[in-house]
Amino acid sequence: MSYDVVIVGGGHNGLVAAALLARAGLRTVLLERLDHTGGAAVSERPFPGVDARLSRYSYLVSLMPHELVRDLGLKLELRSRATASYTPYDGGGLLVETHEGAHTAASFREATGTGTEYDAWRAFYRDAEELALSVAPTLLQPLPTAESIREQVGDGVWNDLVVRPLGEAIERRFASDLVRGVVATDGLIGTYASLDDASLLQNRCFLYHLIGNGSGEWRVPVGGMGAVTDELRRVAEEAGAEIRTGVEVTSVDAGHDGVVVHADDLTVEARWMLSGVAPYVLARLLGDPLPEKPRGSQLKINLLVDRLPRLKSGIDPKVAFAGTFHLGETYAELQQAFEAPSPDLACGELYCHTLTDRSILGPELAASEAQTLTYFGIHWPYDARDADAKERGWRAFAAAIDTYLEEPIESVLARDANGDPCVEVKTPADIESDLAMPGGHIFHGDLAWPWVERLGDTPAERWGVQTGHARVLVCGSGARRGGAVSGIGGHNAAMAVLDHEGRHL
Fold this sequence. Notes:
Largest sheet: 7 strands, mixed
Number of helices: 18
Number of strands: 18
Distance between the termini: 25 Å
CATH topology of one domain: FAD/NAD(P)-binding domain
CATH class of one domain: Alpha Beta
CATH architecture of one domain: 3-Layer(bba) Sandwich
Structural class: alpha/beta
CATH superfamily of one domain: FAD/NAD(P)-binding domain
């Protein structure tokens, strides 16, 4: 079988690349190991006999550029959440509205005993927004230089968010341990790092959480993450891309003029190969020396409750759980979780999809008070992978949230058809097994800055998708501007091929 382009891996990035390349007239085939496309961007029914389609691994959308959604013609609705975040503490909670107003300002005064902390908050995020607005327009373009971005934002913002460890700016600009923690969490989601790490990995993670479309808002995909994948597959197939599922690639022979991809019962020749799998997996397929294996550090817990639990603070649960509900994420607790990661320590955040979009529930559930809850725990020890560790992780989460509830979380859990609680726990080892993500690392490896020091010589280098093989490009989260559900990696790999070919969309 011969094609212009073969794409290995049918995650959302692979589907984006397939759609764009097929539209440009290139014969394109996509090979996916599983029996469905989407990778981590899927919706599934994890609880037997329960009609609830949960976004099982990835939940919200921020980084996918509006321009890409428009150009692909995706029929996709992304809704804003009424609440940005809520962080409970003994005797109250810090509420941040999506559109900050008097309630947010009053909440800061009550939580910190001063009005100056909210002023510091607004000043810090004005700086972050300045950097985001400079970077966001470049994500679907060839890589900018670091100097070109620095010139736009100035040395003050650049030093705080790019040059020096993120923790330094947080500690200098905020006095409250609670507020420091809320700011710091965006630098640690899916990333095992200290806030003062010299590698600046936490700074890079922070930037990616704030640059989506210049606003950094994380929105709810109506219909769940599976709706995103379904739309991407639709436009790819309508463009003429051939999609084959249940095909596991076993090896790749890469030459100067093309590639040969070997699967169990299939051999594909193509002039180009795009890899949607992690760089570690790609190296194994190519027979290259293996890089250091990534190690994930997150615990995911999916729940269905008959109704939202009441909180001791007295806040309406529909307000508190509508955004990001921080749990055990003060600045001190974040550092403790990093220094001594343990299944017995709950440090993470919770979110409720169904307060914004009830379409993921069947008619009977949608008419009830039932809600889905998803917990994303950070600094989870990768080696804690057995059933006992998962149970300890669940118990630690339940104990942590019960501290702020009028009633135990277990008292409101829904039951499946077997009478079991609707709780699903996923460790990095589970994610590695389910999705072939090495180490269960949700970004396929450490995130990179979305710029370069020097412009590249080839289209692949200029788009940040190069490998050690001229005809093999990275189109997934392992691309320079990969990570999260964005489609950016797929778009940029497709553009690099088209640039090489002298073609245009």
